[in-house]
Design brief:
Blueprint (H helix, E strand, L loop, with lengths): L6 E5 L6 H9 L3 E5 L2 H6 L2 E5 L4 H10 L2 H10 L4 E4 L7 E8 L2 E6 L4 E7 L8 E3 L1 E2 L14 E3 L3 E2 L16 E5 L6 E6 L2 E4 L7 H13 L8 H10 L1
Length: 231
C-alpha cells in the first residue's frame, strides 16, 4: 500500500468495528482493529470508539491495558481520538448506575470535570448543531449537524484556560439548552461527544480532516498489508 496513507489503529477485538474501519478507509487511512499494545503504539493514529456508556468504554480500555498506551501516545505527541461514549471517560469523574443507585466513579482524569447523564440534566441528544471553538482545526464549516448518541456528557469545562506555558484546549459546544461539550482538541488528544459514523456527511468530513492531520511514519504499513492479505 502507498506509504502516503496514515495507519489508524482502532482499539478492539479484530473483526469488530467494521463500519468505523470502512469510514476511516474512505477518509484515506489504512486501518487495523487491534488490542495489541505495540500496534496501538506504532500506528500513526489511534481511536478509542465508544461502547454503550462512558463507564463501559473505560472498563474495556482497562481490560485491554490500553490506558497506559494512551498515556504514552499523548506524552509523545502521537494522535489519539476518543469518539462517542468514550468522551466522558477522559474527565475526572463520571456517573455509574449500580443496584444501590447512581454513584460517581473515577475516570482517566485527563481534564477536570464530571461526565453526567445528559437526560437527567435535560440535555437533548440526536442531531444537533455545533458551535466550534475559534481555535478548532477540525470542526469549522462542517456540512451540517452531527448526531449525538452517548448518554454521558459534560456540561461544564473546568480546565484553566489561561496557563502561560501551554496552549489552551479548543472546546466546542452543542447549540442546545443546556449546552454540553461537543469536542475538545488538546494537542495530540482529540475527543468528540458526537458519533462520526452516525453523522452522515458531516461525520465523514470530520474523519477526513482528522486522518489528513496525521503524520505518516510508515512504521505499520507492513503489518497492515499482511493483515489485509490474511483476510
Amino acid at each position: 500500500m502507498a506509504q502516503e496513507q496514515p495507519v489508524v489503529a482502532i482499539l478492539g477485538e479484530p473483526g469488530t468495528f467494521g463500519e468505523l474501519a470502512q469510514a476511516l478507509g474512505r477518509a484515506g487511512a489504512q486501518v487495523l482493529v487491534t488490542k495489541t499494545s505495540n500496534e496501538l503504539l506504532d500506528a500513526d493514529g489511534m481511536i478509542i470508539p465508544g461502547h454503550t456508556s462512558s463507564i463501559e468504554t473505560y472498563r474495556t480500555v482497562q481490560s485491554f491495558d490500553a490506558e497506559r498506551v494512551v498515556g504514552r501516545r499523548v506524552a509523545g505527541g502521537r494522535p489519539v481520538l476518543f469518539a462517542g461514549a468514550a468522551f466522558g471517560m477522559l474527565f475526572e469523574t463520571m456517573d455509574d448506575t449500580t443496584s444501590a443507585g447512581a454513584v460517581e466513579v473515577k475516570g482517566m482524569g485527563e481534564w477536570p470535570g464530571h461526565a453526567c447523564k445528559l437526560a437527567a440534566a435535560g440535555a437533548p441528544l440526536g442531531v444537533q448543531q455545533l458551535v466550534p471553538a475559534q481555535e478548532s482545526s477540525l470542526l469549522h464549516n462542517l456540512p451540517g449537524a452531527l448526531r449525538y448518541k452517548a448518554e454521558d456528557g459534560v456540561l461544564r469545562w473546568e480546565f484553566e484556560q489561561n496557563i502561560d506555558y501551554m496552549r489552551a484546549p479548543a472546546v466546542s459546544w452543542t447549540q442546545t439548552t443546556p449546552p454540553y461539550i461537543a469536542a475538545v482538541e488538546n494537542g495530540p488528544l482529540t475527543a468528540v461527544q458526537f458519533c462520526p459514523i452516525a453523522s452522515g456527511e458531516p461525520g465523514e468530513e470530520f474523519m477526513r480532516r482528522w486522518v489528513a492531520s496525521l503524520p505518516v511514519t510508515g512504521r505499520m504499513s507492513v503489518v497492515v498489508e499482511n493483515n489485509v492479505e490474511e483476510n
